[in-house]
Design the sequence.
């Protein structure tokens, strides 16, 4: 993985080979844009660890972005993770801990002393702490909450009361507040007082005496306003909000659609609870995308920030075997179809030559369609009420694709020395299978959404397997009809 960074570093004499290698690889003259090669950086860190060169390792880590260090820590074993992490200065360590995977983060917290953990938690945002705690480690949750300041611990407990994967779990309760009777100068002064304690200062949220959200002021507008102007005069009074139980995917969609820096979270009485910041939304988009990819591959998804090597083989097998067994059982339909048409296949052996071609075409067509429909459902381009238009569109697409492919299939059959009748069978089968695969690939995920299921669960392998069996039945039925078998 390559990450472009601007590194400002003065050229200095290097006192050891690691420092010199680092200078040659990662730095240059002041303000030169350099490409960080994480693979080489990891190799340097591992070399310094192996030779116990603490000074070189500390210098190497100091210049790196927290996200890059987190990527490398996720790949190290437990002892190496702790050795690297202890060399980071406190602010750097906090940023790194917010970027590491859940498993690595928990392992580090359990390896550090109580004082070290307490100091780290005091600097972390509540939403990051909530992500670490989760539901699957109650003992760790109790232990860490006991180490926190009472007020901070109560904030975390409040966020943990909301359902997983909702705005309530993502939000931070720290944001810049303003009040209607403030002028621009007073609002800016209030912002300066809390700027270091909140995640973002792009917006100020105007609350009434009951803490209800009545306006949002962009920092840009506040800076341009005359000092004596009231904040409500430059505030937006129409804005997008979400509830604490709004699904995180819906929050991400709203932030993306309306170009928000943060989404305000309010209760039913419009009382301000917190904000979901855009960095958390990006994490959600990555998480949801990872889940969809895994489900499309018929793999049960787990923690989406898990490193490939962090997942034990036993757990990886457990996530895959269920779907494979289901697909295996579904695949027996193909065997049954062949059994039903055994006599026809025995009479015209050439029919069997085209089976791989036809079921492969059907499976590929269905996989393309289901991928397109699931993406459109996720983006909101397609809704269940559009099912008629979607099926009509896919019917037309299936016919056009089928006609093009059927001409190629008929030519292939004739060039292979087969009879014109058999070529017609193959061509008609390709046409029918393409239409059927398009319809199935569109209908099934839309029905899944209608009944409250994630359309991504209707994975491409499942559609492919179903279309294989039904497509084979279509082929052999057409063959029996035309060839009189």
Sequence:
């Amino acid at each position: 993985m390559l990450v472009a960074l601007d590194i400002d570093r003065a050229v200095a004499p290097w006192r050891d080979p690691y420092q010199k290698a680092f200078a040659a690889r990662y730095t240059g003259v002041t303000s030169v844009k350099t490409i960080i090669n994480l693979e080489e950086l990891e190799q340097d860190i591992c070399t310094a660890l192996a030779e116990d060169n603490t000074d070189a390792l500390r210098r190497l880590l100091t210049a790196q972005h927290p996200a890059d260090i987190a990527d490398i820590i996720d790949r190290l074993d437990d002892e190496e993770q702790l050795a690297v992490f202890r060399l980071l200065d406190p602010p750097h360590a906090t940023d790194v801990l917010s970027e590491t995977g859940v498993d690595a983060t928990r392992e580090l917290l359990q390896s550090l002393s109580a004082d070290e953990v307490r100091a780290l938690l005091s600097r972390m945002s509540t939403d990051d702490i909530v992500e670490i705690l989760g539901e699957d480690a109650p003992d760790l949750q109790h232990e860490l909450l006991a180490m926190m300041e009472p007020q901070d611990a109560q904030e975390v407990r409040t966020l943990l009361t909301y359902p997983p994967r909702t705005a309530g779990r993502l939000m931070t309760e720290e944001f810049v507040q303003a009040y209607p009777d403030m002028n621009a100068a007073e609002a800016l002064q209030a912002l300066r007082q809390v700027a270091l304690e909140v995640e973002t200062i792009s917006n100020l949220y105007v609350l009434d005496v009951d803490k209800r959200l009545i306006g949002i002021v962009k920092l840009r507008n506040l800076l341009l306003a005359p000092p004596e102007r009231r904040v409500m005069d430059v505030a937006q009074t129409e804005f997008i909000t979400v509830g604490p139980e709004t699904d995180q995917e819906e929050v991400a969609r709203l932030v993306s659609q309306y170009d928000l820096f943060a989404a305000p979270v309010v209760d039913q009485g419009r009382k301000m609870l917190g904000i979901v910041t855009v960095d958390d939304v990006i994490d959600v988009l990555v998480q949801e995308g990872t889940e969809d990819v895994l489900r499309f591959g018929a793999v049960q998804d787990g923690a989406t920030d898990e490193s490939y090597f962090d997942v034990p083989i036993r757990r990886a097998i457990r996530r895959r075997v269920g779907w494979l067994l289901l697909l295996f059982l579904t695949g027996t339909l193909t065997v049954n179809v062949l059994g039903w048409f055994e006599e026809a296949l025995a009479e015209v052996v050439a029919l069997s030559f085209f089976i791989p071609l036809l079921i492969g075409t059907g499976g590929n067509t269905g996989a393309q369609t289901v991928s397109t429909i699931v993406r459109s459902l996720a983006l909101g381009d397609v809704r269940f009420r559009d099912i008629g238009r979607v099926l009509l569109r896919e019917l037309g697409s299936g016919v056009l694709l089928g006609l093009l492919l059927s001409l190629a299939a008929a030519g292939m059959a004739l060039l292979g020395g087969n009879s014109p009748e058999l070529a017609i069978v193959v061509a008609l089968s390709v046409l029918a299978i393409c239409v059927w695969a398009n319809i199935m690939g569109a209908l099934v995920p839309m029905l899944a959404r209608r009944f409250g299921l994630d359309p991504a669960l209707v994975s491409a392998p499942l559609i492919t397997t179903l279309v294989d069996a039904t497509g084979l039945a279509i082929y052999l039925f057409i063959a029996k009809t035309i060839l009189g078998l």
